[in-house]
């Protein structure tokens, strides 16, 4: 009685409780986040390693630091037993007798858990400008939809839970959107589609009906187009101003170059004038020195001639003085008178 019921039970459980939302396989060493969602331990750690933020892959609840994760032994044991049911059901279906119904049931479960296709089989890798899947680990696949309730963007593979899990089927899916969390109303969990010109903020339809009825409201896209138009005009004006200022700056730079060249030329000319003046001063100084030296030589020669004349005269005077000195000592009157004419 138990074995016929096992595949049916296995199929129901595999869809709701025993599939990791990251790898889409049956849980291996399942761990549970503080917000209540379960994942394979390796999948969750790998997700946190690649995202570099500690958030729940399902509900996007953020944690300031990595939560302490312990393997949920009860869930691990049930998952192991469920895996055994899957394997037993697969062998029973292959055996033949009374297993056609059971085999088809297990094949359906196998498609869900063990036969999950790779990312490249269910979508292209996200390129520049395309919204990537938030649940993919490693290289991201291009997102197929964004969920306003999770919030997050998911590829075709990771959207399966939104189609299978009852608590996720009511979530609102939209076209893939960048920075989804910033575009969702925190109060009503709706997309910010309206712009309030009175408060200068984006709001959702519920906010518009509740607290912005008398305000000047327009669609966010309309206001975006208007602001983009104004931005375009301002950009054009700035480009024109930049062009004018650049031209003026080039003129000033050219003027600076001319001033520098002119100053350099004047400086070179002044050095030439200074050098010429220095040469003339040195020449005049040399001529003056030569003139002074010439005058000195002539003065010295003239003085030497005078000195020699005076020396000769002095010698004669001394000789005469000696003669007179000798006459002065002569006691013979007759002799003195005889030579008296000589001393006149």
UniProtKB/TrEMBL annotation:
Transmembrane keyword on record: no
**What PROSITE patterns would the database entry show?**
ZF_BBOX (PS50119), ZF_RING_1 (PS00518), ZF_RING_2 (PS50089)
Q: Where is the RING-type domain?
A: 20-60
Q: Which Pfam families match?
A: TRIM_CC, zf-B_box, zf-RING_UBOX
- Compositional bias annotation for Polar residues: 111-122
Question: Does the UniProt entry include the keyword Aminoacyl-tRNA synthetase?
Answer: no
* Annotated transmembrane regions: none
Q: Highest taxon of the source?
A: Eukaryota
Q: Where is this region: Disordered?
A: 93-123
Q: Which residues form a coiled coil?
A: 274-327
Instruction: List, for all copies, the residue spans of the domain called B box-type.
Output: 180-220
Q: Which GO terms describe its molecular function?
A: zinc ion binding
SMART domains according to UniProt: BBOX, RING
Keywords associated with the record? Coiled coil, Metal-binding, Zinc, Zinc-finger
- Under what name is this protein listed? Bloodthirsty-related gene family, member 12
Source species of the chain: Gymnodraco acuticeps
């Amino acid at each position: 009685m138990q074995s016929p019921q096992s595949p049916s039970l296995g199929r129901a459980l595999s869809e709701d409780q025993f599939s990791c939302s990251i790898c889409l396989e049956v849980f291996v060493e399942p761990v549970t986040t503080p917000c209540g969602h379960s994942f394979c331990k390796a999948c969750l750690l790998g997700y946190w390693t690649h995202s570099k933020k500690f958030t729940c892959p399902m509900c996007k609840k953020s944690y300031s630091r990595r939560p302490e994760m312990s393997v949920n032994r009860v869930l691990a044991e049930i998952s192991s037993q469920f895996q055994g049911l899957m394997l037993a059901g697969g062998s029973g279906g292959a055996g033949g007798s009374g297993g056609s119904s059971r085999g088809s049931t297990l094949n359906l479960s196998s498609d869900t858990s063990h036969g999950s296709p790779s990312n490249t089989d269910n979508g292209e890798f996200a390129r520049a400008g395309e919204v990537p899947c938030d649940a993919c680990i490693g290289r991201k696949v291009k997102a197929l939809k964004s969920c306003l309730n999770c919030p997050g963007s998911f590829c075709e593979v990771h959207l399966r839970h939104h189609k299978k899990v009852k608590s996720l089927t009511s979530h609102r899916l939209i076209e893939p959107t960048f920075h989804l969390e910033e575009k969702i109303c925190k109060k009503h969990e709706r997309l910010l589609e309206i712009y309030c010109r009175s408060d200068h903020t984006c709001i959702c339809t519920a906010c518009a009906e509740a607290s912005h009825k008398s305000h000047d409201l327009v669609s966010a896209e309309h206001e975006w187009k208007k602001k983009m138009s104004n931005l375009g005009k301002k950009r054009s004006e700035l480009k024109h101003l930049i062009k004018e200022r650049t031209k003026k700056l080039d003129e000033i730079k050219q003027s600076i170059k001319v001033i520098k060249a002119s100053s350099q030329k004047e400086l070179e000319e002044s050095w030439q004038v200074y050098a010429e003046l220095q040469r003339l001063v040195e020449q005049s100084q040399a001529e003056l020195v030569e003139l002074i030296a010439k005058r000195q030589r002539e003065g010295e020669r003239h003085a030497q001639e005078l000195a020699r004349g005076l020396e000769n005269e002095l010698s004669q005077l001394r000789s005469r003085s000696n003669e007179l000195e000798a006459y002065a000592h002569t006691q013979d009157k007759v002799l003195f008178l005889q030579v008296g004419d000589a001393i006149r």
